[in-house]
Protein 1
Amino acid sequence: MDQPIFRFAPSPNGELHLGHAFSALMTQQIAQANDGKILLRVEDIDTIRCTPEGTIQMLDDLDWVGFSWDEEPRNQSDHFDDYAKALEKLRSDGLVYPCFCSRNQIKSNANGEKDPDGAPLYPGTCKHMSQYDREKRMQDADAFAWRLDMDKAIEKVGDLTWQELSEDFTEVETVKANPAAWGDVILARKFTPTSYHLSVVVDDADQNITHVTRGKDLYFATAVHRVLQALLELPEPKYLHHGLILDDEGKKLSKSKKSLSLAALRKRGWTPEQIRVQLELEEEEDLDENGD
């Protein structure tokens, strides 16, 4: 049997917190238990918010908390050409179209439907624009995004499923994908030839990832990834969506909400062992009397 390959893929657009530590260390534990390889991917397609300093801090935090990986990290910013090629294939197949709507326009034109993340579902304003009007607006240097025509995509690939693993790897559930719930998702923008959805499936294929472990907040997004994998003829990994680390109010930890970071805990004197105990990845009795 081929060696399973796992990955952890954080973004250096802010300081890592306990949620990142949990996902990284849990992935590491699962990989080790299954004699697997674990890779690190730096998701830095946002070249404005993701800085070299942020990447250095992120790598230092991961090393401090005890996360290790095989091979050199893969930086997404080095692979824009790969994402552009994937987008071009979808364009040549007539599966994407340019959308010139701003966020405010989408919100004002929305019909009340929401995507699985709770955002207004794109109402398809630009979907039936004539080719002449599209080309004219693109030539006029208007800002635009490339959207996947989800109806055409579903018609092309048919019904899709994915294999969802239990956290102990003993059970497998076949989940029916519902990509239609997302509508015509954005795959790239005028000056950025990719989005999270497009880059993640290209990266997973290029890195031969066999098992994707990530938080339950990305559970429903897997439907979009399965569509793209089918359209681009990419292999299908197995998935494990683990529980999230929540704050005292029961909300997901977030960089944007300035959730307490690993760096801050480190300054307060926390040890990596205490982090693992806090995350219930290690038993407290494993620590010595000094907490080390």
Protein 2
Amino acid sequence: MTLLDPRIAPPRTLDELRQETVKRITSGGYPGRGVRPVDAQTAMAALTSLDPEDWAKVWMAVGDRVVDEADRAVPDAQGTLFQSAYAAYTMGRFPTIATPGKQASYEKAISAYMRYAALLPQRLEVVRIPFEGSEIIGYLRKPDGPGQFPLMVQCGGLDFWKENVADEALSYMPHGIGVFAMDMPGTGQSPIKGDVGSERVFSRVFDWAETRPDVDSTRMFMRGVSWGGHWATRVAIAEKGRLLGAINHGGAVHYFFQPEWQLKALGTREYLLDLFGARANVFGVTTLDEFLAYGPRMSLLNDDRIDLPCAPMLVMNGAKDSQVPIADQLLLLQRGDAKEAWINPRGAHMGFGAGWGPDRTIRDIIAPWLLKKLAQHAAEHGHG
């Protein structure tokens, strides 16, 4: 497999990549949210090739300058600057850790994120859980005050990693819900690649949660966003007895994993760069043929897994999603246990667009659903 494989859209030229990157960041598009437009212009002006090491180098240089700026700034300005540095370093590792430079940029991103997080009112706890000779690294954010709180374990997707999830977790704190942010298999610092059975990494987190005196292990949830929604579905089945609910938010079920859909997606230039490299890295494969052969094994139709009993589920997406076919969500609704759904008829991936963004979706759909499940549990078990 080479970049010249006719089944994959050719990469943008150097000038196209520069222009498209600045355009997306200036307009607040994805990826690059949080990057200052002036920093995007600086990085792209310095980019001299399509070499991923060059990409990582120019973004790390920008991130380093923003960190220096933060170190010299007044305390009130430091948080925003460290956040901007984190965003720049994240662009450096985007979309996946495929080279030493991208690895270095990700390590710098984590460092900048920790400096930003340390300045927020809500404390971030870095959690390390032993796992099969390695470890699960996650971030715990919990509401203020003593006592046991309900916990939602959440993973991101292909390039939306646990640092992004930990920021999103702030939206759940006012509702009294703690969040454990982690990377889905095959991304970030996950100790395993994506494969049938990789949902066991989430089961290990729920085991850990049961040992925490500040977590009410009778009130736990799982949410996966984008590709992570696939894992939320597997966890809903594997952990049916331990969860009050699970949310598949735009996640793959069956059709996404088929060669026909993958070739359609890989044949477009919707993704900024190296969509194939990012997706292949989830499975730990390198060639297109390996990737296309690997995907179908992940379908939840295999062994009729989709028909197994599962925890209560909320299924979410946009009808016009071009990343994960809406047919996957509809299939999930038609098989197995009854589920609830929120489908935005005019929404794109994850239902966003047409007036719906991440903040509104959490506020109006996800948080109310979690609170409803908690209220039902309280009514049945006398919980406060």
Protein 3
Amino acid sequence: MPAPRTVLLTGAAGGLGTLMRELLPGHGYDLRLLDVRPVEGAPDALTADLADPGALREAVRGVDAVIHLAGISLEAPFEKILTSNIRGTYHLYEAARAEGVGRIVFASSNHAVGFTPRPRGGDPLLPVTVPHRPDTFYGLSKAFGEDLAQFYWDKHGLETVSVRIGSCFPRPTRVRQLSLWLSPADCARLLHAALTAEGVGHTVVYGSSANTRLCWDLGPARALGYDPQDDSEPYAAELIAEQGEPDPGSEAHARLGGHFVTDPPIWPH
């Protein structure tokens, strides 16, 4: 499909949103920014809450596509997750349907399948077809978002690419992230591919760079046209020296979600 011209970027003031609003214009996008708080350095950004259906309809009106990054990005009490990530995502999809937006790129997460066993040496890479096994209320909201996207495709013809993002930071900060790291530049490449690929219906992909320690299958993302350029391996020696190798016998190491399957974490994932 032709590259969308104007894209609504929700969550534009957040960590990932800040990175993407700097990188996506280089791929040819005119971004309309939205967040629940003012976006620093962007006086034209829209300030609106996902709980406000009317404001969301105005925000999506006239855009060619939406990149939905907004919501709570850490584990939190269920009521907060319910309001922001579950009801809020529904409000966004309903606004997009009502205004005739054709495609959404939904920021899902590896935590939607966090209780899935990690592949061991010699095992095939983890496919996107594994069942939802969320490891947190946050992961549960991302599983809901993927199912909501499927429903809006089947019922209303609204296309979505759901990207199960690993860990998108300028550099990995934990040993676990060596297999899941998505560099900001590769994230922008992946979002561009998700916006421009033809006939996606509802497609689920994993989102990481081409890491040497990759544990999941990037084939579906590559099928969209994604060509990752980065690898976490240059950071491996330093991280392992600081933090040590994971305990191979631990439950956290055995599951994709890492320590999120055993702890109630609040730190970045």
Protein 4
Amino acid sequence: MKLKKYKLGEILDVTRGASLSGEFYATKGEYIRLTCGNFDYQNNCFKENKSKDNLYYIGEFKPEFLMKEGDIITPLTEQAVGLLGSTAIISESGKYIQSQDVAKIVCKEGLLDKNFAFYLISSALVKQQLSAAAQQTKIRHTSPDKIKDCTVWIPELTEQKRIGMLLRSLDRKIELNRAINQNLELIAKQLYDYWFVQFDFPNEEGKPYKSSGGKIVWNEKLKREIPEGWNVSMLANEFELQYGFPFSTELFTEQVTSVPVVRIRDILDNSVSAYTTEKIDEKYLLQKQDLLIGMDGNFHINYWTDNVSYLNQRSVRLRVKNGSNVSIVQAKYDIQPYIKAKEARAKGSTVGHLSDKDMKDLYVLVCPNKTLREKLDSILSMIIKNRTEITSLTKQRNELLPLLMNGQITIE
């Protein structure tokens, strides 16, 4: 495959967003201002910014700053290491305003394919050039001119389209799986609330238990009423609690063929960020559907998705004991309020901490009907399956990307 050398400015335009006055920031409105928080730079895609509550803009702005579906954007400010060179695609027209920290990429017709451009900007080649040219302040910045000054080598337009289409098809499948999982998690939470908070699970006639007159009795341990026939059990009676191993950081390695280690910061992203050559007991080995809880800082809580990683210190994993009627999904929602309260109390302190006693003092509700657990378990199985596929597709895309972009492989 023949590649031709260009400056990015020869094949695309880069425009800076509007300077939006803070006096018109609002907690509700018609338009949302784009920020660097809209870039999921680890997955190179768009995300809703949930870090602020004043993202709406109610002031006047020029129409050209209102984004359209399919517009490509890239950040001009590096508010997190690795952010420069990230790309995202606007998913909806007439909703987002391009702000001054965000640049819009417009391909020159006949020279650059839009899908190909999305991956070209976020390629290692361009990212390295942007990083080298970034202003060395506390928060690093780039500019439209610096982006346009990057040197690239690209194939002819027909090959660009083939490459762009292949990579986008992988990303669309990844996005679809993420969307499905978001809906599955919403369904799981709704079922939990319906069954274990409102107690309107289906009775023997298929009607809502509490609303249909099902008997509710006082439980002294929980200091509240629960359905007749239900029990309350200590968390440790229903789940195996295993605390992480204190791995030696001196034995961490970049060799991904070594033992994968799940650190506390990995729990939320369901990822692995460290590998070790250390030999450890198999009791620290994780399994799919284990529930992981970080015990310091933000107390992240999430399900795990593989059978090959080992848990690091400052975290605990929960695994359902044989014969228990409690779903791991139920356990997550049963203990989440306590975890959040602990996190809130830790704000302002040096480091919040969940102790062994904290975990062992927690209670869970036990429903005698196995059907409730089975329904939640089936949803979790689908979530884990989709996460596993996301990991596989992401790995495939990341391996293909540099090979396709530098011409080492071609698409027939």
